[in-house]
Each structure stands twice: as C-alpha cells, then as structure tokens.
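Suppose a colleague, Dr. K., hands you the sequence of a protein chain of 464 amino acids and asks what its three-dimensional shape might be. Before reaching for any lab equipment, you can write down a predicted structure in token form. Begin with the sequence itself:
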Amino acid sequence: MKINPKNIRFRLIAWYIFSLGCVHLILATGLYQIISSRLYHELDERLSTYTTCLVELLPQHKQVDLAEVIGEMAELTALGSDLYVRVVDRHGKPIYESTGLPTEIVTRLRSTIGTTGDRPITLQLPNDEPRRMIIRQVYEDGQLAYVGHVAIPLRRVQQALTQTSIILIVVVPFVMILASFGAWRLLNRALAPLHKVIRAAQAIQAKDFDQQLHVPKTGDEVQALAETFNEMIQRLHHSFEQMRRFVSDASHELRTPLAVLKGEVELELKHHRLPDRSQETLETCAGEISRMSRLVETLLFLSNADAEKVVLDFKQVHLNQVIEEMAGEARILAEPKHIQVELTNGSDTVLQADEMRLKQLLLNLIDNAVKYTPAGGRIALSSRSVNGQVELKVADTGVGIAAKDLPRIFDRFYRAEESRNRTDGGYGLGLAICKWIAEAHHGTLRVESSPGKGSTFLITLPLA
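The predicted structure, expressed as tokens, is then:
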C-alpha cells in the first residue's frame, strides 16, 4: 500500500506514535532514574550501617579477631565478601586492611581515602570496575580514635541497571508496536464509514443524483457528514433538474419564433426589391437567425441527452462506407480553402452503431478541422482495427490547441481564445456533442495537439 503523508490516517498514526514514543521515553528514563537512585540508596545505607558498626564497636571488641567480625558483618548486611576494608588509628597506623586485591588497586584506594569526605562516592579505578566508598571517623573523649574506610564493587548494582535497561529497551518498542497496531485497527474501523462515503460520492455523477450515501448509525461526525452530503445531493439534484427544464423549455419556446422570423426575412428577401442597405441588413439578420436556430437545436439535443431522452438506433454499420462518405463531405467543405483531404481506410469493419449519430460525430470533427486549417493545408481520415476495437482518426495541419486548453475543449461553451472566435460560427458545443456520441457508443474520444502543428482526434469504438 502506497503511503501518502497527507492521509489523515497516516498523520494520526504518526502523531500517535510520536506522542507515545515521547511519553514512553520520559517514563522509561524516569523509571531508570528511580531504580538507579533506589539501588544506590539501599547500597549506601547498607554500606553506612556496615561501616558504623565496624568502627564504632571496635573499641568494645579490641580483643576480637577483626577479620572474623568483618566477614560476619558483611554477611549480615548482604554486602558480599569482596569488600575492601581499612581501619587506621588516630596516627594513621593500619589496624586492619583487606587482602587479596591487586596491589595497584589497593594503592589507588589508599590514595583517595583522604579526599572522599563523609558521604559515599563512586570511584572509577583504572583497569577495575567502579566501587562505592565511604569513610567513618570515631572519636573518644573528644579526640579522633579510629578511621574506617570501606569500598565495595558496584557489580550488582550495574547488573541490575543493565537488566532494567534491557527490559525497557525491549518492552517499550514492543508496547509501542502493539499500541500502534491497535490504534491502526481502531482508526480503520472508525474511518471505514468515511471511506464508504468517499467511494459512494465518487460514484455519483451529474446523472446519478438518485443515488444516496449510506448513512452509518455511528452517532458521530461521519454520520453527520453523510446526512449533510445527502442533503447537498438533493439540492444539487433540484438545481440540475431546474436547469435542464429551463434549457429544454427555452429551446422549445425559441424554436417557433426563430422559425417564423427566418421565414419572414427570407420571404421579404425573395419577393421584394429592397435598397442595398436594407438588403444587407436583412441578410445579416437571416444569418444570425440561422445561427441562433442551430444553437437552440444543439442545446435541446444536449438537454435531452442529459435527461437520457435521446434514443440511439443501433444497427450494423459498415465503417468503410461511412468513412468514404465523410471523406466526400470533407472534400466539399475543404475545396474553397484548397485543403487536401486524404483517406486511409482499414479493413471492412462492421460496427454496432447509430449511423446518423456516427456521421454527425465525424462531420463535426471534419468541420472543425476545415475551420482551423489554413489554406493549402491537409486533413487525413483513417481507420484501423486494434485489439477488438476500431480506431478512427481525424488529423489536420491546422493551428493546433494550446496545452492549457486541451483538458477543457470538451466542456460546453468552452472555446480556446487563440484559435476559436465568433466569426467561425462555433458555440463551443460541437466537441461536447462529439464526446457524448462516442461515449453513448461505449467508446472514447481524445485529442493530441500542439500549437502550430495541428490536431489529431482519436475515436475508439468497440467492434460489433
């Protein structure tokens, strides 16, 4: 599945993972610090108790073997047997010092004894593990009697912290992945009605307003969105119906007065001798009335097509005959501009089509090609069978169409400013009719064009 950073689901999951990660990081760091502080605090308490008992009870047990006492106290305080213990008198003379440690470590411990103070500190010794060290001083009669120094490796504390770190490193990502997966499932379930709304909205077109979105009974914003969308569809349906009725009714109402006007003008021109100025005016009026009549007929046709009132008469049509007939019409239209018309006919193909509408489609394209091809240009008509379909091509060497106009040339009443103007007699409806005819035959109509190099219209229709 392609990841879209602008997708709501992706952004919610990304923000959720980021927030969850920050919270887990803070909690893990805080937990690690609490555990570390607790372990050091307990060790320091045991170390302090051990040192206090050892040094302060020493005057009362001068005859006791210190090595035995130190061992027993280490077991009682759970400090282990790897302690370093050193007891000196007021003159610095050693009374007891642990054995078994490497000489360089003992030397290093001795060198730091006078600088440790009364609080436990951590000593990082070269080539040795860190040790926690504490000093306790004992006074008799107001004078210093003994000084005890005790140091213990931090091996157990570090092992416990390492295990804690491993657990946090493993558990936190696992919890994040599990939580993210759960959030993804919940989001999918929560957004599923919205996806249904989107798919239904995409399926609804201008002629499919009878469709309604399924309203999920979720009681949330998705339900409100679906209900609002259905209300909007009803309003659009009402507006489109009003527009269709207006265009249809206006076209019907205009046909009769335009026909009367045209008849009266033509009758006046035919039976009465008029001054040159009046004659020219009436001829202009007759031309404009003809143009308006064609526009009305075109609008009526498109209105009926939108309302699905246009019935096509499908029957078997021999494409070669249609192409040859249209090539003859093209030569007649192109003769005043000395435009060469070429015909390249494929095999005798049979289509299931409405012959009159198919001719109308080709004639509209040929008429456009003649209008926008300069004198002495060339128009080519061709047909061929490709993968169970027939492809008709109308190509010209005319002015072409700008790239910015290509996506809109099949829109109603759209005309490219550079190549189409009012003197050509077009209304921007011819290509819209061509596209409707092609799609009504379950085919397609597309265009390839470059300014100054001409245009090629490609019609693809299914074979019978």
